[in-house]
């Protein structure tokens, strides 16, 4: 019971403090981002600090982090889906297809080759670590695209692109992660067969179909309930949060990808639900997400393998720096001419830099550790995650302000297209 009270006072106090000074931190004290402060608190109260709390006393630390990360990412992808304009993916089909198909593959291969080069592990182990750190994190991305600073300095088209990509590629990273994971578990021939039939056709296919069907049905019911005054305000505000948990749990029981299903369900719910209720639902979703975000970053701080990081030496530091510079930025510069919301090189540089690695990668790292038990996968992945939390947190506000200053505000923005939904890509 004492451990619970320590957790309540530390994590609750942190959430209270950061919530009260969120605007001050983003605009004035931007060298410390909220996730960074949460990670630091985890280190301070964890085994490497004052040793006030230890996840091992509550159960399997990896299982605790995995499940808390799964819930947080599920809430984050649902929030990202609700944040997007209706029919966004339908009207941006080419741009999103490029970012989510060749774009993700390039990020995966570049990251994997960097791991292979700097750590000298087997190719499939390197590709597994590369896959874990491929997805753009919706939690950290949300801290960049939400708020008055973002609304002032980042065009809506770029904010929507980052939200849409971060929401979708968390679930789509699932087959990329499981391909090398299955190869490391089984023979290559058996792994490829299981990956195609089980992972791609069943788990991904089922997630998309169920997520779309449940999301559309829930949105339609919500709209009809609103029209007939069946909804009370208090019940309305709990709809999307309960919806997220139900989809995550239900689809997982079927052995499918609950994170991808949650995002698809959010898109379809967004499409069919009553627009006047949606703004309130989005605010509640963001609020609940915030309550989950701080604890999971604190848990991350408590679980980071500092001694294993030191064992990686300069190779680990160089790997982390190389991943942050080369994983995403070259991909965005390469494909930006085909991505409609990206108007020029400045947009590409901004969108290419802000593809943070966070809770989604943490989730996949714990899954890989649970299945394979390879400590290097955990230590390398968490080092890169911590580096992204630090570097993207420090650069978020100054780079956003700089971007807002240099962007040509007289040039017609893709934001207008996103807001009016008048443009459909060919």
Order of secondary-structure elements: HHHHHHHHHHHHHHHHHHHHHH
The helicity comes to over 70%
Shape: globular
By secondary-structure content and strand pairing, the structural class works out as mainly alpha
CATH class: Mainly Alpha
Overall average residue pLDDT: 86
CATH topology: Na+/H+ antiporter like fold
> How far is the N terminus from the C terminus?
59 Å
Largest sheet: none
How big a fraction of the residues is strand? under 5%
Radius of gyration: 21 Å
Protein name: Sodium/hydrogen exchanger
GO molecular function: sodium:proton antiporter activity
Domain Cation/H+ exchanger transmembrane: 17-401
Transmembrane segments: 6-25, 37-56, 68-85, 97-119, 125-150, 200-221, 241-268, 288-306, 312-329, 350-372, 378-399
Describe what you observe in this structure.
79% of the residues lie in helices and 0% in strands. The protein is mostly helical and 426 residues long. It has a single domain (33-407), classed as Na+/H+ antiporter like fold. Helix 4 (61-83) packs across helix 14, helix 7 crosses helix 8 and helix 8 packs across helix 21. The chain crosses the membrane at residues 6-25, 37-56, 68-85, 97-119, 125-150, 200-221, 241-268, 288-306, 312-329, 350-372, 378-399. Its main location: membrane. One of its GO terms (molecular function) is sodium:proton antiporter activity. It is found in: Membrane.
